[in-house]
Amino acid sequence: MDGYVASDVELLGRVAEGDRLAFRELYDRHAPWLAVRLGRRCPDQGVVDEVVQDTFVAVWRGAARHRREGEAAAWIWGIGIRRLIDRLRRQPARQRELAAAAATDGTAGTVPSAEEQVLLGVEHGDLGRALGRLSPELRAVVQACVLDGLTTREAARLLAIPAGTVKTRMLRARRRLREELA
Amino acid sequence: MTTWHVDPELLARYARGEVAETQAFSVEAHLPTCAHCRSALGPLTDRERHERVWLEVVDDLDAGQSTWVERLLVRLGVAGHSARLLAATPSLRGSWLAAVAVALGFAVVAAHGGHDGLVVFLLLAPVLPVAGVAAAYGPGIDPTYEVGVAAPMSGSRLLLLRSVAVLIVTTVLAGVAAVLLPGIGWEAIAWLLPALGLTLVTLALATATGPLRAAGLVALAWAGVAWAVWRLTDDGFALFGQAGQLTMVFLAVASAAVVAARRDRFDQGGAR
Amino acid sequence: MSVEVAGVAKHYGRTRAVDDVTFTAGNGILGLLGPNGAGKTTLLRMLATVLAPDSGTLRLLGRDPGNTTQRTQLRRRLGYLPQEPGFHRGFSAFAFVDYVAILKEHTERRARHDEVRRVLRVVGLEEVAGRRIRALSGGMRRRVALAQALLGDPALLVLDEPTAGLDPEQRLRFRELVSRLAEHRTVVLSTHQTEDVAALCQRVLVMDHGRVLLDGPPGEVAAVAAGRMWMSSEPPAGALLSWRTAEGRWRNLGTPPAGAELAAPTVEDGYLLLVGVPERKAIA
Lengths: 182, 272, 284
Prior knowledge:
Number of helices of chain B: 14
Number of strands of chain B: 0
Strand content of chain A: under 5%
Distance between the termini of chain B: 79 Å
Structural class of chain B: mainly alpha
Strand content of chain B: under 5%
Helix content of chain A: over 70%
Distance between the termini of chain A: 52 Å
Shape of chain B: elongated
Radius of gyration of chain A: 18 Å
Number of strands of chain A: 0
Oligomer: heterotrimer
Radius of gyration of chain B: 29 Å
Largest interface: A-B, 43 and 39 residues
Largest sheet of chain A: none
Helix content of chain B: 55-70%
């Protein structure tokens, strides 16, 4: 076992059989990024902690049903973001505040520094700049629908806006990006 | 495909939440596909929080294995620990409740068959919680009885908690059945006070003879009295008239007093 | 002394299940050794406050179990493993131990769950905590039952036949566990395995027909058979009991003939003599 690093899929297989150690390993690998990523959509740490907790309990219980190659992280994210949406839905007024806060977090709208642009440039470059020039509302919708993989309805719940608004904003965002990148 | 990884400095700032949205997009689009960057992120996050949440996860896993009865009770607002005590009650299990429902079903059918059938229903309904109390707690009923006796929680508290729950549940079931009776009249609730009265008498007797024997005696006495009254007055409903209901109230109050006074009796394992 | 028993008796009809028993016990392990029906379980149930004696006095951890308040206080520091531990259907190991923890008045959820996990860890069952008890093996079920007895770190542990149904490896494990526990506690356990007694107990009460036949260290039990055990190559006629050892020779109990090769007596030998070998049926 020295130096051998099991893949996520292998770990999931063991978790499906009730292996607590494998589960702990999986938790150590995925809980940190899940917490940070969810934290950027919901600034309430307490809620994020509970969602992370619920997510991993669901991972433990559902490990047997999910064994597809290479998708562990995406699967975990899917569970996590949907739990967050459910959680936020139950507190409507607060949800609006949080969604608004998350969508316009302090650093939004700042232009990345030249250095950062270089760093980004290798992977996303023009797209990154184009995204940066979108308004925060449009960017939030792009993040929800494209990055987070949510359906229109789920994005609407997360952002506390009507589904129709999500659709129109996505269309506007696409048009803007096309214009920018043309 | 180049093996691009997130710059450590950027990753650190991402972990702290100090990164502009578009850069965050970039990192977040990358992480699900790169185990290397994910593991690099680990040490940069709050370890204490990580451990704390882990304990909650483990607790949830271990403690979360509970029966449907328990989950339902918690959903209804019962405190977690009481719910667990109740979930262990044999007469709150699905099989028992199904049997009660079946018995009530037969009684309703009988009631639709005629006047006498209705009396059968009224006689049956108060006995059901009595049977439930017999099957709620005690040696031979609760497999963990011995361990329970040796524990500091008083046996009376456990028996009373379970008996109240059994009474409530059985009453609800009988109430549902009563709705199906022909011609809603006072008959629909004439069994309520007797149910309460008989249950309390059973508990009072149980301080002397244990729940099982007490329930048997009460059921027998009820049947005997009902038969005698029916014979003497030729009216099955006589038992449930005003005099009958008042007697039940009296019995209920007297029994409650006895239970309160003698509740220590449930605490030691009796003659055996 | 944590346990003070004086002249305690219990009868069922005309049968004297426990007949005028007197002894004391402090830290360490006290073993009750005796055949079925000797009164071990009845005595243990009295020590566990599950049964009240008909006569005599009992003082446990300085308290009188006949007094309601003191009995409740006593029960907070008591752990009991009955002879036939029962479990609720459908409960997992964790849920069951949690249930007992509630009975032991641990009402605060988080602290209680930590305590449940602790005792399950002590008996080595934390990996299967979430499994249904009916899905566990007999040995594991007994360990679950032992775990509940350890809740709340009791000062007095009463264990009725704790090694019944355990295989040798599990029995060894159990001995290790109980020895560790007994360093700071009083443990009273019953068994009819003389090896358990020899390996574990600082003191033994040999019981039969409700009475104490001997009260002393295991060596004293063995000493009863001093000079009454001998080896031979053929089963001799006058022995009370003879059996063949693995080496093919015969080990005999009784009055040895002159010049016989005496053998060092074991606890089992002494025990057999004490409970009266001639009355026992033939041992296969």
